Every structure is written in structure tokens, then in C-alpha cells.
Description:
Elements (H helix, E strand, L loop, with lengths): L37 E2 L6 E2 L2 H11 L6 E2 L6 E2 L2 H11 L8 E2 L3
Amino acid sequence: MICKYRPGADGKHNSDGSRKSSRRIRTRKISSDSMKPFQCQKCGRGFTLKRNKDRHVNYECGHEPRFQCPYCGLRSKQTSPVYAHIRKKHPEEEVFIFDMKL
């Protein structure tokens, strides 16, 4: 079964007779970094998991972007934004990245 969502396709109307748009609004609880138990000693950024703080300290905080798009030179400290960039901006090209650290 395939379900497709179309805003306003539920047949509901506003009080003035116009169609009502039924869009969902995502809310995200934002907690301050000071409330998170693991803090980066360099920049003060907070993390809920120790492994995330360790990754941040070892690979991101104070380091230059390590991964680069082979087609346009976009750089990032993590691989996933570069992979997503290649799939979106260079759809005909092979998906791989350069690791500048090697």
C-alpha cells in the first residue's frame, strides 16, 4: 500500500469557507549545552553521550575540515554531509570523497 500526503486534501474548511491546510509542525526541544553532562573543554559545547564528545574533540573541535568533495572542493569535518552533497549537486558522478588526513 502506498500512502501519499497532500496538504489540504482532507476536505476540511476554515470558518470563512476557504480550504484548511493540514501541515504538521515539528517542534524540537532545545536544551542548553550547560544542561548536558559531557562538555568540550576547548569550546564548551555540551553532549548527551560521551562518545559524541570524544568524536567532537578528536576530529572536529579546532581541526580543519578533513573530507572533501572530489568535484567542487566542498569540505566538511564529517563524511555524511559530503556524501549528501555529491548525491544532490553531482547526481551523474560517482559517489566518493577525499580524506585530506591520509
